[in-house]
Amino acid sequence: MMNKKINMLLSSVLGISLTFGIMEAPVLADSSVKAAPSYTTSDNSTNNNIVSKDNDIEQNGLKISIDKIVATKHKLEVTVKVESQKPLEETKGDDVQVLLTYGDGKDYNYEMSHELINDKTMQITLNREVNDEEIPEKGNLRVDLVIPKYKINVGMDANVDFSESFKNTIEKNVSVNIPEFNFTVKKIESNAMGTEVTYSKEEKRDSDEDEDIDFSTPLILKIGDKMYRTMGERNYTSEDDKGDTRTVIGSYNAGVATYDKVKGQNTISIIPIACSMTNEDRSKIYEDIYKNLDYKKDDVNKDTTSDISYTKGFDFSDGSKGEIYKIERSDNNLKVYCKGDTEKESLLMASTMCIYPKMEKEKTVYYGYESEKNMSFYKDQDNSLGYIVEFDNLEKDKKMELNFDYAIKEIDKYKIDDEIQL
């Protein structure tokens, strides 16, 4: 129970997928299995690209379907669902084998993750990213899926057209120096998969600096009045390096800040949050919490509003305090109002807030909720220090727990820089 609770918290706060893998070897579905009828996608920014659900396949009492396909010029994401009439068991990473093929018959290398989103539904997500070429605009996409545990061996085809999605893109080249991070922002791009801030930095070839970079709250993206937490997406070295230095290219992504939310906005800015903690420092904080946490006592001391369990007060190491002063829940939306003694505490609380399903003793399987993919926050106009944090796509009436990144307790380790216009 305790390990699952800590893992759920870390996954929600840091945006870590706890079950994932890199798929490279081919997996061939049984050729006797009927492939799904194809379909044509439309505007990726406004729907799931699925015109028809005729691509569902029934096999061994399970329904398998391509649920969603989203693409930009350099990224492709495919979501597959396996649905059952009876509760499913958790599966290990190597229990699920997938082959994704798209564009000139190529077998794409990609990242694969899977999770149970409820007791009867498994969601499999495939992510492909290319830097030196572009994702084909149109073509046939195929997913071959093998899950021996459930005796699944299927192949599904889909005709796709990403032309509208590629058009629904906002790109801007900039050159903005961020002294606190020692890098220069080079580009900002918003599309169907969110908003990405790309940067470059110079460093020595033998540097291991990246090992201690804290990605949990790297910077805040502000679009209009709304703010979004960003996550580190990738790091690679430019090929034109010379001498003892190298140019590192990296990016931060806010998946929830899609093209539809950015278009029409007049201002885009970032708020850097520098943290002097190393990964080792952070790990020790979580280890100490795990050792000292009394689950029963912690649960009893929490308040509950609209099936949201939370601790109303939050204590920082310097003696300052923060609090949750209101919670509003309606259908699939949750609003949490929080504030601290100063703007610094308030912003740290808002930007690191997370929610996850409440742990229930009688259950052995727990279902995740990716806070960073569903949250935004903004100032409370009725409270000078207050922030309103919104979470969307919540399962109605589901019991949830609310928390913060415990590391922000060490508030003296954080420095919030001035807002920078892009």
Plain-language structure description:
The chain has about 425 residues and is mainly β. Helix content is about 10%, strand content about 45%. The chain contains 6 helices and 28 strands. A 6-stranded antiparallel beta sheet has the order 1-6-7-4-3-2, with no helix packed on it. The chain is globular.
Low-confidence stretches: 1-47, 50-54, 210-216
Class from helix and strand fractions? mainly beta
Silhouette: globular
Question: Would you tell me the overall average pLDDT?
Answer: 81
Distance between the termini: 45 Å
CATH superfamily (homologous) name of the largest domain: Immunoglobulins
How many domains comprise the coordinates?
3
Number of helices: 6
Name the CATH class of the largest domain: Mainly Beta
Helix content: 10-25%
Radius of gyration: 22 Å
Tally of DSSP β-strands: 28
SSE map:
Blueprint: H1 2-14, E1 20-23, E2 57-59, E3 62-71, E4 75-84, E5 97-102, E6 110-118, E7 121-129, E8 138-147, E9 152-161, H2 163-167, E10 170-178, E11 183-191, E12 194-204, E13 219-223, E14 226-229, E15 231-237, E16 245-254, H3 259-262, E17 268-275, H4 279-292, H5 295-300, E18 303-305, E19 308-310, E20 313-315, E21 321-330, E22 333-340, H6 343-352, E23 354-357, E24 375-379, E25 387-391, E26 400-403, E27 414-416, E28 420-421
Parallel strand pairs: 19-26
Antiparallel strand pairs: 1-6, 2-3, 3-4, 4-7, 5-8, 6-7, 8-9, 10-11, 11-12, 12-16, 13-14, 13-17, 15-16, 17-27, 17-28, 18-19, 20-21, 21-22, 22-25, 23-26, 24-25
Task: List its salient traits.
422 residues, mainly beta, Immunoglobulin-like, 3 domains, six-stranded antiparallel beta sheet, five-stranded antiparallel beta sheet, globular
